[in-house]
Amino acid sequence: MESIYIHGGVALQGQVRIQGSKNAVLPVLAATVLIEGTSIIENCPRLLDVYHMQALLKSLGCVCLWDGEKLKVNAAGVDLVHALGGMPQDAAKGMRSSIILLGALLGRTGEVRIEYPGGCVIGERPVDIHIEALKKLNVQFEETIQGLYAYTDRLRGAEIDLPVPSVGATENSILAAVLAEGITIIRGAAREPEVVTLCEFLSACGADITGGGSSTIIIKGVEKLSGAQFRIPGDRIVAGTYLCACMAAGGEVLLKEAPVEQMQAVLHVAEQMGACCQQAKEGLYVQMHERPLTLEKLVTQPYPGFPTDMQSPFLSVLTLAKGTCIIEENIFENRFHTVPYLQAMGAAVQQTDAHHVKVSGVEELHGFTVSAKELRGGAALVIAGTAAKGETVVDGCRFIERGYENICRDLRELGVRIYGV
Ligand code: EPZ
Asked: Is the CB of 130 under 6 A from ligand 1?
């Protein structure tokens, strides 16, 4: 799909099932490499990033088989030859999360060659914290022009102090520590729900991990892991995206299987902006019948704070809110790509510096042809188009397909006049 067409300005009405979480399933799929057997991952979303990860697993000697919404991975065939064979460049470059295979492959084979993962337009995306953490576990690195060559004669438990609660570095440290000799303590760990899900999957496979979801995680190395059948939770960012569409265009929606308990900071902000959010048996029920209220300030922080991935979607809603808001983006250095397009749609928004945007709500936006430059910004432009009067065309939809199974199908189920070509 290249472009999405939206005839906006109609209130949302309906219900949709929220897909499995992209940012939870990617490290879990990487973790299957540690297991000399079969794992069954349920509620696995069909996303570009999952297909990229599947290609990387296959290149490492894994056999992957889809069975409905289940992805079965048999990693018995993973060995040094594959691990050093290098991974398909398009898959590795196409997706940041290829770096997450580093810890798992070291745990399985002790040696691996990996491409530098693609940075992207939202920021440099360095991996220095990953490397420093793994060095603590007795890993040596050689940096070559193709990327990283990492090796260890034996992974040994250690104390790791993360300078930044990096989600990926926390996940890589856990993946390398579960089969290491001795005990690993990770301090300053990321507390995101995706880290908790990874710890739950690994524990189901026989790992000994305590403290997942807190800033101190303790891992006692075990001899071996065995495959498990595991269900991926709903995607909190996709649920937040559709919450924003309802806040921008108005209406009443039920977001089935939304992980409400993981969305508290987002729901708190939504309610401050006038949305009525209720936890229902099936998920999250949202009502929005008035123009959104603005906020004095919206600040992104590591979990459990307001998530950076929700910043662009909420910016789209704030363009229609009564009053002026300052948005502060603290996690990435370049995450305001939607601003010029929102301006073209009639929004009164300007970027004041690399980390701040000022937005004063207007009565309405008008449709325009805009371009997605990255995943969440692309989704945020779809949200703006859902509320704007007239037709909006969003180009560059392959970015959106990295994280949304089918945003057109989902929003159509909520009554939006939207289609993709
Ligand atoms: C994960 O990225 C998510 N991706 C991102 O979601 C999310 O925005 C981010 O966490 C923050 O919550 C996946 O889980 C696949 P970080 P990750 O390491 O792990 C700096 C989406 O839209 N840093 O927590 O790459 C880094 O530059 C994506 O689904 C270093 O400096 O994020 C950033 O400023 C976008 N050195 C900050 O830390 C390092 O070695 C947080 O990054 C690693 C990170």
From this structure: yes
Contacts 24+ apart (CB under 8 A), 113-116: 113/83, 113/84, 113/85, 113/86, 113/146, 113/147, 113/148, 113/149, 113/150, 114/87, 114/147, 114/148, 114/150, 115/86, 115/87, 115/89, 115/146, 115/147, 115/148, 116/147, 116/148
pTM reported for the whole predicted model:
0.97
Please provide residue 246's backbone torsions phi and psi, each rounded to the nearest 5 degrees: -70, -35
- Structural domains in the chain, CATH included, are 3-19+234-420 (3.65.10.10), 22-231 (3.65.10.10)
Gap from CA of 365 to ligand 1 centroid (Å) = 31
Percent of the chain with pLDDT over 90: 89
Q: How far is the centre of ligand 1, averaged over its atoms, from the C-alpha of 233 (Å)?
A: 20
pLDDT at 95 over 70: no
Closest-CA residue, ligand 1 atom 41, reads 166
Neighbours of 187 (CB within 10 A): 13
**CA–CA dist 188, 327 (Å, integer):** 25
**Residue 2 Cβ < 6 Å to ligand 1:** no
The reported pLDDT for the residue numbered 94 is 54
Please tell me what DSSP assigns to residue 282. S
Binding site membership of 385 for ligand 1 (Cβ less than 6 Å) = no
CA distance 278 to 284: 6
Residue identified by tokens 């990874």 is 198
Give the CA-trace dihedral at 381, 386, 388, 393, to 10 degrees.
Answer: 60
Active-site annotation, residues: 120
In degrees and rounded to multiples of 5, residue 224 shows phi and psi of -155, 150
d(CA 63, CA 75): 7
- Please name the residues in contact with 84: beta carbons below 8 A apart, sequence gap of 6 or more: 111, 112, 113
